[in-house]
Amino acid sequence: MQIVTSLEELRAARRLRPAPLGLVPTMGYLHSGHISLVQRARAESESVAASIFVNPTQFGPTEDLAKYPRNLEGDLNLLEAAGTDLVWLPTPAQMYPTGYQTWVEVDGLASPLEGAMRPGHFRGVTTVVAKLFNAFQPQRAYFGQKDAQQAAVICRMARDLDFPVEIVICPTLREADGLAMSSRNSYLNTDERQAAPVLFRSLNAARAAYYAGERNAEKLRQIMTDTLIAEPLARLQYVSCADYDSLQELQEINGKILLSMAVYIGKTRLIDNFVLEN
Ligand code: AMP
To answer: Is the Cα torsion angle 245, 226, 272, 81 positive or negative in sign?
Structure first.
């Protein structure tokens, strides 16, 4: 596995790798969810690349950039074991040198849900992913369904800006009790960790109602809310039952939907979602 830091080194290393190249962008502190993306890339692509970059521009001023968990050595071991060929470790100063002033912004899809709660977040995400696409020139790029809106926004950006890359969305990996794997789960203390599967439980409750025939979106939002507020350590930020393609909030359901939520467990903000169709 080749590990590079400068853009020049990356470009030189990239040129030597046979196509198609599959890219897995990450912010590090890797877990099995990240590695499932690498494994999918490995199964489908001639070359597999990953980036580890805690992207400052996608964090709000009050968010957890400075204390975002890091474990470079562990990450590199996991990437190597999963068969990664090439890893780029850019620095913030390389990505955003003095004088940097260019941004990539998706309009509609980036506005609701996470976009409404975290102003500027998706502008940071799409900008850094566009830069990663330019740097790696991957034929495929792998993203997790765990961050459903991020995946939708990146698909839109790739189409709108004609990036010659196929975006592959991979299923959410979960712990045995249903908690979606996330680097931020490491912030949870023992009691909070026990409370955290309430997100999964609330999604399951709404899914059961949906498959029992419920097609009123407000009812599904209410079912998720009722489950979440029954957990004393949970503080609900939003629940949503939205059209899968537009991410607009629904009243009546008659197509593919995204159930999603953001919930504070103690000081840790967790998100999760299900996609439902028929
Ligand atoms: P992050 O390091 O949090 O930016 O995540 C890097 C990539 O891994 C993103 O595409 C995430 O959606 C994806 N990812 C994070 N957690 C999971 C998970 N539990 N299952 C599948 N993919 C995930």
So the answer is: negative
Distance of CA 252 from the midpoint of ligand 1 (Å): 31
Fold classification of 183-276 is Pantoate--beta-alanine Ligase; Chain: A,domain 2 (3.30.1300)
Q: Residue 278 has what pLDDT?
A: 80
How remote is the C-alpha of 42 from its chain's centroid? 19
Assign domain 2-170 to its CATH superfamily. Answer: HUPs (3.40.50.620)
Mean pLDDT of the chain: 98
- Residue 171 CA to residue 148 CA, distance in Å, equals 10
pLDDT tens profile 98-133: 999 999 999 999 999 999 999 999 999 999 999 999
Provide CATH 3.40.50.620 ranges for the chain. Answer: 2-170
pLDDT category of residue 149 using cuts at 50, 70 and 90: very high
User: Which two three-digit tokens encode residue 103?
Assistant: 């941004």
Q: How far apart are CA 135 and CA 244, in angstroms?
A: 30
Assess whether the C-beta atom of 121 lies below 6 angstroms from ligand 1.
no
Alpha-carbon gap, residue 74 to 239, rounded angstroms: 34
Catalytic residues: 34
Does residue 217's CB lie within 6 angstroms of at least one atom of ligand 1? no
Q: What is the pLDDT of residues 242-257, one digit of tens each?
A: 999 999 999 999 999 9
CA atoms within 13 A on the CB side of 139: 12
* Cα–Cα dist 149/258, whole Å: 9
Among 75, 147, 167, 169, name the best residue to mutate to test ligand 1's pocket (greatest count of ligand atoms within 8 A of Cβ): 147
| Angle between helix 217-229 and helix 198-211 axes, rounded to 10 deg | 150
Q: What's the rounded mean pLDDT across residues 258-272? A: 98
Closest C-alpha to ligand 1, atom 11? 144
In the block, which residue shows the tokens 């990239």? 14
